[in-house]
Structure formats: C-alpha cells, structure tokens
Amino acid sequence: MAKILCVLYDDPENGYPQNMIRDDLPELSSYPDGQTLPSPSKIDYTPGQLLGSVTGELGLRKFLEDAGHEFIVTSDKDGPDSVFEKELPDAEIVISQPFWPAYLTADRIGKAKKLKLAITAGIGSDHVDLHAAMKHGVTVAEVTYCNSISVAEHVVMMILSLVRNYIPSYQWVVKGGWNIADCVQRSYDLEGMTVGTVAAGRIGSAVLRRLKPFDVRLHYTDRHRLPADAEKELDLTFHENADSLVRACDVVTINCPLHPETEHLFNDSLIGKMKRGAYLINTARGKICDRDAVVRALESGQLAGYAGDVWYPQPAPKDHPWRTMPNHGMTPHISGSSLSAQNRYAAGTREILERWFEGKPLRSDYLIVDGGKLAGAGAHSYS
Ligand code: NDP
C-alpha cells in the first residue's frame, strides 16, 4: 500500500464553508479542441465544493483509504521542519497544486527514496525539478487543459480592469467618494488597441478568441505558427519573437510555460522595447518576469499597468514589492483554481491515481516526465 502526500492551500480564514454558493456547475461535454474531460470511475464529492484546500482534500480520502493507502494532507510545505519535508522520505506519491506549490527540488527528490509519482493538480510542473525527476525515475503528470479556460477568463478580466482603471475606481466607491476625474484620468477603451500574446497554446488561443469581439487587433508569437485557417479566423498577426511582438502592442499577455528560455524573458531590456504606457499581464509564471524590472517600469511610467496572479516564491512574502508597486492589479495565484477548475483537476487527479494503481498507462496528454525522460505533453512544452 502506498503513502500519498498531498500539499494543499489553507482553508478560508473563517473556516471550511458549510454551504455551497450555487447548487450546480455547468456541464461541459469536452474541451474546446475535443480533448475529453477527466474521467475517473467515480467521484466522492459534490462538483462545486471547495476541493483545493486542506479540508477539501481534492475529494480523495475515501477512495484512497478504502483501498488501504495512507493519505496525508498538509499545507505546511516549506523549510526543513515542515510536515512536507518530514513526511517526504517514505512517500510514494506527492500531489500538489501550482497555487501552493510543494517545491520538489533536486535535494528533496534525492531524499525521497520511495518517490515514484509527482502529480500536479493543475497545469505547470515547473515547481518540480524535472531533471532530478528524470534522473531518479519519478513520473511527473499534470491535468492538462483542466483550468486553461479559467485562466483565459482571468486574463480578459485583468486586461479590462487595467485599461479601464477599474480597481482604483471601485476603491473610490468603497471610500465614500465620487471622484470621477481621479478615476478617469487613467481610463481608456480597449477598442482599437493592439493586444498580443506570448504563446498561443491552450490559454493564449482562448484569450485571443475571447478578445476578438472587442474589436482589437490581435497579435501573437509562439515557437510554432498556428494553422493558416486559425490565423485567418481571428485575423492574427504573427511575430517571429517576443521582441518584435512587444514593440507593436498596447497590451501584452504572457501565456508560455516557465523553462530556461522564458525565465526572466521580460527584463529591463524587453520591457524597454514595449510602447510607453503599455499594459503587461502575466498569469503564466512569476519568474518569466524580472521582479524588479517590473517595479521600475511601473514607477517610471514605461508600463501603465501590470497584473497577473503568479509570483515567486509562492506564497509571496508580505514585503514582496509587487504588493505595493503602483498601478498593479495583482491577485494571489487563483486564476486556475476556480471551483469549476477544482472540480476538473480533482477528477483528473483521481483518474491519474486510478490508472496508476491499476498499472495502466496514464494519458499521454497528462504526462510530463516518464521513464527517465520528458514524455507526452511535457516533451512538447518543456523541451
Ligand atoms: P500549452 O502547452 O497549451 O501552451 C503553451 C504554449 O507556449 C505552446 O504553444 C508553446 O509552444 C508555447 N511556448 C513555449 N515556449 C515558448 C517560448 N519560448 N516562446 C513562445 N511560446 C512558447 O499550455 P497552457 O496554455 O495550458 O498553459 C500555459 C502556461 O500557463 C502553463 O505552462 C503554466 O505555466 C501557466 N498556467 C497558469 C495557471 C494559473 O493558474 N495562473 C493555470 C494553468 C497554466 P509550442 O507548443 O508551439 O512549442
């Protein structure tokens, strides 16, 4: 029987919710590209329930304990005295979410002698040292597509909220003011602006598709060009690289994975090539942007706004400068953890576990590392 160590974020400050806000979730038949939704044999929770926090347990306890496995759930993940570090040496499976990542460094993987499977309940396995996973024969899997649309919706919300200056305007209402000029002195229409995405994968493409009705000009860069009919349908302008893209855009959204090629891609030099007063939205990974370069650009006015929900490290320390820099619209890492997304990645995690215990191959779409090398979706995204 296996020991499964699961790291989840804390319950709400007022305790685990006793009631659901809504009675149901919309039922989806498949993802936009036809990929099928997670399909475990059964689930032991109500869709729409809070699953990503420690009491929610991704709805896995009954399934795992009925099968005789040991299931440990904690939010205490950092430092040598953390529950995660203490329980790791004899864990066979680790589950964690990118929102509250259990960093599986080379050092930790080296100490986890029994570790065979690391599951990302979400998308983006950059919190796992993939080279160390390959070296130690650890399989890494994630729930591809589970929250891509959730993130795309968040990106659209953040673009509109920055360009229209929503957040400060809302704050004037809460403060009891009616300060029209204070609100509108930074407010523009999105209509007619040029919006570009760095990467047009599942999230990037969904952002482009959602923005099309706003009558904006849509641009993108990616390692592989989209099919001609997709470019034509959305009237897309392709750029060979980010350098060319950012010079043309009023708004740039980052939707590529974090890997050595994209780490600190948005530094002083690239941000300096953006149009003065451009907006930058990063829901991909915090380290794709140079932390202090973003602060400098907001302070100088080179950027009119920066928003996103990804930081490094996570949780971000109380004194992280992105909490206090001007004209930002940051949230904690939540875009991919809506209740709708939680339902899909909890089901996807269970599907992975069921297949693993039955000795069946995992979906190629879910694999990042397998058999000592990048595999499946990972061979495409992280190569
Ligand atoms: P996809 O794999 O569908 O898309 C990623 C795209 O990035 C691919 O088209 C890939 O190109 C492209 N790409 C990779 N490297 C580069 C590069 N150097 N320059 C330009 N394009 C590049 O993934 P998703 O769209 O589902 O997710 C993207 C990322 O978003 C994830 O890796 C994760 O980090 C982040 N994410 C954030 C979430 C959140 O909650 N904030 C939730 C989910 C994901 P190609 O395949 O053509 O080689």
Features:
Rossmann fold; globular; alpha/beta; 383 residues; binds NADPH dihydro-nicotinamide-adenine-dinucleotide phosphate
Describe the protein in words.
It is a single chain. The chain has 383 residues and is α/β, with parallel strands linked by helices. Helix content is 31%, strand content 16%. It is built from 14 helices and 14 strands. Strand 1, helix 1 and strand 2 form a beta-alpha-beta unit. The structure holds NADPH dihydro-nicotinamide-adenine-dinucleotide phosphate. NADPH dihydro-nicotinamide-adenine-dinucleotide phosphate binds next to helix 5, helix 8 and helix 14. NADPH dihydro-nicotinamide-adenine-dinucleotide phosphate (NDP) binds next to helix 5, helix 8 and helix 14.
